[in-house]
Amino acid sequence: MALAGIIFAIGLQRGVESGRFWTKIGPALLVGVGIAMLLSGFPIEDVHYGAPHSFQGWIHLLAFYLFLASSTLACFFMWLRLREDSLWRGYDWYSLGTGVLAVLLFQFTMFYIVLAVLLTWLEVLATRLWVITRREGASGA
């Protein structure tokens, strides 16, 4: 899943029009999401609530916060990038709404809901990218 996240970020970099330098930050942050998924895959031994007590537990916790920060910031930067591409019309506002919702839910410490919202956002963008590439592949054949 982590490698797929990094490949997805590269696909978005290539599959979405961009003009300005700062619009490239969104896909770069999504590489951070892939790295966070890789780091969170290590097995943890402290399966209780509270502060982690092992090295793996700390890595897992830091990866979770890296995922939250990278994906939430990516929502805002992808909003800026998606609004420049007519193939992604509507997905720009979805990205902005997802980022705002993630920030609001994080304020109320609803971590699992934030996680579900952000993972759903990633899946929606991945599905849209897949549809666009399939359509372009069919028209080019």
Write the layout of secondary structure elements.
Blueprint: H1 2-15, H2 25-40, H3 55-82, H4 91-107, H5 111-140
Helix pairs in contact: 1-2, 1-5, 2-3, 3-4, 3-5, 4-5
Count the E strands: 0
Give the domain tally.
Answer: 1
**H/E element sequence:** HHHHH
What class would the helix/strand composition place it in? mainly alpha
N/C terminus separation? 30 Å
Give the % helix: over 70%
User: Strand share of the residues?
Assistant: under 5%
Taking the sheet with the most strands, its summary is: none
Radius of gyration: 16 Å
Poorly predicted parts: none
Envelope shape: globular
Mean pLDDT: 87
Per DSSP, the total helix count is 5
Descriptive terms for the model:
single chain, 141 residues, mainly alpha
Can you walk through the features of this model?
The chain is an all-alpha fold. The chain has one domain. The protein has helices spanning 2-15, 25-40, 55-82, 91-107, 111-140. Helix 1 (2-15) packs across helix 5 (111-140). The longest helix has 30 residues, at 111-140. The radius of gyration is 16 Å and the shape is globular. The mean pLDDT is 87.
Brief summary of the model shown:
This protein is mainly α and 141 residues long. It has helices at residues 2-15, 25-40, 55-82, 91-107, 111-140.
